[in-house]
Amino acid sequence: MSGRAVGGPAGDPGPPAGESVPVVVGVGASRGVAVSEVVELIEAALAAAGCADRPVGALATVTAKSSEPGLIGAARRLGVPLRAFPATALAAVRVPAPSAATAAAVGTPSVAEAAALLAAGPGAQLIAGKRKSVPRGGPARATCALAEPAVTDNGALTAGREGAPAGSSPAADIVMTSPNPSRRGPDRRTAVIGDKAPEREPTGTKETQ
After folding, report:
1. Residue 174, pLDDT score
2. pLDDT digits over 68-108, tens only?
3. Which helix (H) or strand (E) holds 175?
4. Phi/psi of residue 157, each to 5°?
5. CA distances to 88, 127, 163 from 166, in Å
6. How far apart are CA 182 and CA 109, in angstroms?
7. What is the C-alpha to C-alpha distance for residues 68 and 111, in angstroms, rounded to an integer?
8. What is the pTM of this model?
9. For residue 205, what pLDDT band results from cuts at 50, 70 and 90?
10. Nearest to 22 by CA among 5, 40, 37, 41
11. Whether residue 17 has pLDDT greater than 70
């Protein structure tokens, strides 16, 4: 799906005229995943979806994985925030490829696809379903999916507003905001309604496999 150029009113402008809608990347990971494996997976997914030139707005994952150094490092390298949602919020999001194994491990049948949709906001669409990394000489330790926010009639993006289709869900925790500008476009933090200012240090969570 090709990028759409949009503009919006003051206070919720969306991307400047002529710029593409940012892509939100949902990510899942096994313990100990390398930063390079996550970044290479994201770049491959963007290229395969025809989105290599579009900016990445944020990475999103389940709270249980939000302290994983490989995910935090990937967000830092890309210059975007890493957002974390509770498993119960992700489980409320309908996805095309739910997994019983994932549900047993982290409490939600989807991490990558559900996190991408939830972080991208109401009306968001998947532009690439779950994709596994292909590391050399070892098992895949990362998954990702791509979503894009909806654009309202006045041109504003819905990104940053909770996208669970049934009822409201807790706002995402902003785990990390990189001090470096994004390599794929302007570093645009799209605040989740009700969220707090990002902490400087990653929040600690109990990791699961």
Report:
1. 53
2. 999 999 999 999 999 999 999 999 999 998 999 999 999 99
3. strand 173-176
4. -90, 150
5. 12, 21, 9
6. 30
7. 14
8. 0.70
9. very low
10. 5
11. no
- Sequence-ordered list of residues with C-beta below 8 angstroms from that of 117, at least 6 positions apart, any chain: 26, 93, 95, 124, 126, 147, 163
CB of 24 closer than 8 Å to CB of 147: yes
Nearest-10 crossing angle of helices 35-48, 69-78 = 50
- The residues near 200 (Cβ < 8 Å, ≥ 6 apart) are none
* 3-state class (DSSP) for residue 104: helix
Tokens at 91, concatenated: 């489980």
Eight-class DSSP state of 69: H
First to last CA, the chain: 33
Distance CA 178, CA 172 (A): 17
User: Is 193 exposed, middle or buried (CB count within 10 Å of its CB: 0-12, 13-18, 19+)?
Assistant: exposed
